[in-house]
Amino acid sequence: MVIDVAVIAFAQMPNVRAETVRNEVEMLMPVIADVRAKAGLTQADIGFTCSGSTDYLSGQAFSFVSTLDGVAPWPPIQESHVEMDGAWALYEAWVKLQLGDVETALVYCYGKSAPGPLHEVLSRQLDPYHVAPLWPDAISLAALQARMLIEAGKATEADFAEVASRSRRNALTNPNAQLAWDTAAADLLAEPCLVDPLRRSDCPPITDGACAVILASGDRARALRQRPAWIRGIDHRIEPMALGLRDLTVSLSTRTAAERAGVGNAPVDVAELHAPFAPQELILRESLGLADHANVNPSGGPLAANPVMVAGLTRIGEVAQRIMDGTATRGVAHATSGPCLQQNLVAVLEGED
Amino acid sequence: MPKELVAVVGVGQTKHQATRGDVSMAGLVREAATRALADAEMTWSDIDAVVVGKAPDFFEGVMMPELYLADALGATGKPLFRVHTAGSVGGSTAIVAAQLVQAGIHQRVLTVAFEKQSESEAMWALSMPIPFQPPLHAGAGGYFAPHIRSYMARSNAPDHIGILVALKDRLNALKNPYAHLHEPDISFDSIKDSMMLWDPIRYAETCPSSDGACAMVLASEAVADRSTKPVAWVKGTAMRSEPTMSADRDPVLPRGGSDCAADVYQQAGITDPRRQVDCVEMYVPFSWFEPMWLENLHFAPSGEGWKYVEDGVTGLDGDLPVNMSGGVLSSNPIGASGMLRFAEVALQVRGMAGDHQVPDARTAVGHAYGGGSQFFSMWVVGADKP
User: Fold this and answer.
1) Prior bond to A75 cis, omega within 30?
2) What residues contact residue B201 under an 8 Å CB cut-off, 6+ apart?
């Protein structure tokens, strides 16, 4: 990696259970205006624009086409879209900046999970011939993974409850969080299971949301932001979808991505992990070499707000914001996609003193 | 930092047809990918990363199907990326894959685009229901017919130009064993007499709905230099997008397409595309888009594109052959259609285009567009190393 690229601005919509009034374009426009203002840039100053979303949340083919109008792309702009979480849109923008033709990029993503039955919608991701016809919902698949973790002796339901409790307690200081409360793990354990061995508190909320990031390279980043959050490493890997083809108690793709991104090269101040279900945080911690780390998901993470297609880029934004604020020096951000942590992206961000 | 060079070292595609009931989605993409790997004289394990493109997921009814296809595409333990930029997606996907090599991140990238349209009814999938937009049209043809009318009025083009384009492309398709439509009895009169679908677009001037996939292996200079076959060097790539709702837009001759062409020619050192480009594959889903894009992409002066068609300039034996493969008018697996354009020009400059080869093609342009004529992707490939 020859060209240094940094996050210089991050903005997000306050996460909500259901945005029933505004459509996706209207949801996004204030977020884009906010992130541009924070970077001190107009669309004319932005070299490349890239977004992430999925038609399966909008219920409309080509849904991203109308959303693009939210950035006012006139005169015509250099632009791309991925049918992936916004974290991968950021990856495409990072690659584009590596080529040196442009120095700034706008990355945004959005998702309304509320209008449809989300956990059934997500079952449309599965093998369409052998698995999807059975409509296994996302919570049941995560419960299978949790059960395997328990039976492998790697974690207990009490461990899950600790993650669930800490995440919502952390979220009390996050004004954009959807779920924030202070309940002890022992009290959570007393609740009945939703899908054994997962309790409702082990599961993410259903969230509508949007977020945006601005990237800049080299001296342009230094000129625009006093303390840019430099992307020192970024990598993503995938595994087979079929649950029988992988050990669900580890995340090999996260481990590979973490090694290539250089997570273990120096101490980490903060980590934001895209673990929609509480047991998945334990799997990710181990794969990232952060098993006992004290500062994971200070924002509350996806257990406090889980806008599908957005929650991954939000993790990068939350880490970058702490570096830009000067409250952290080196952080790890993670994004996931697919059932049971099938695909994973890891980024290492650093501040310069 | 100068960009690394990137070349197309392998190309593969499926036989395109209305229903590929003999293969699953995984089988379809593997058919194209294994042919691209064989052409590149590589195996799955040689590939560093996979970049997948397709148009709306509703066409097959699978949400983000690249996740399910990861195993079939040999992506385990590798990066897998999914692009979706509307109809231009096949071209955009190839560009995203090329950039991974140009940035020095990977040495060998497999890129695959597909659509299995027989899983649904694409025309109605392209007709948005209330409340997303008013029910003004049925299918893409209903959307584009007024643009064509406008072009005819502006340029004083005679009515038969669209028929000439359709006849040329369908005759070219007879030379392409992978093309969906093989109509040996087609004639000017049979096209003229076909049903008027969306005036002025007749049935025989319309693209088919196809199942199909296309794949390419893109490689670094070091890898390409070791190839035992000719390679296609990528000399420029460009993408442009413009809004849906803007009074500034001219959807007939869109500024985004014009800007995209100017950008890619500048990168490739092309100052006179009409003279310096040997052949072109452009995205022509309805016959009239050939003269429109000839003007939009700076091959013909404004208002003159239709004269090139009438004079036979764009024929396979013409001065500037266009859509040698038969084009979108002869095969349209939507998500793959843009990549098929990009792949065909790579085959041309490699001298591997078979019966539809343009003699001594050295520099060729691939083009794709999408949305309401608002998303554009283009590349220039050449036989000579930059």
Assistant:
1) yes
2) B141, B144, B145, B148, B162, B286, B287, B288
| Residue A162: pLDDT over 60 | yes
Report yes or no: B202 and B192 within 8 Å, Cβ to Cβ. yes
Bond before A197 cis per omega within 30 degrees: yes
* Count of structural domains within chain B: 1
Backbone φ and ψ for A351, nearest 5 degrees, come out as -95, 160
What CA–CA distance (Å, rounded) separates A180 from B6?
A: 50
**pLDDT by residue (tens digit) across B316-336?**
999 999 999 999 999 999 999
Range of the domain at B100: 6-120+209-225
Examine the domain organization and report whether A27 and A176 are in the same domain: no
How many residue contacts between A and B have a Cβ separation below 8 Å? 178
Q: What is the spatial distance between Cα B18 and Cα B20, in angstroms, rounded to a whole number? A: 7
Contact between chains at B68 and A125 (C-beta distance less than 8 A): yes
In the stretch 123-162 of chain A, residues with CB closer than 8 A to chain B read 124-129, 132
* Interface membership of A242 toward B (CB under 8 Å): yes
Complex prediction ipTM: 0.98
Q: Which residue has the tokens 């409360």?
A: A181
Q: Is the dihedral of CA B36, B40, B41, B45 positive or negative?
A: negative
For residues A74 and A23, state if they share a domain. yes
Q: By CA distance, what is A256's nearest residue in B?
A: B77
Burial (Cβ within 10 Å: 0-12, 13-18, ≥19) of residue A202? buried
The pLDDT value recorded for residue B142 is 86
Tokens at A347, concatenated:
């980024």
Q: What is the pLDDT of residues A10-41, one digit of tens each?
A: 999 999 999 999 999 999 999 999 999 999 99
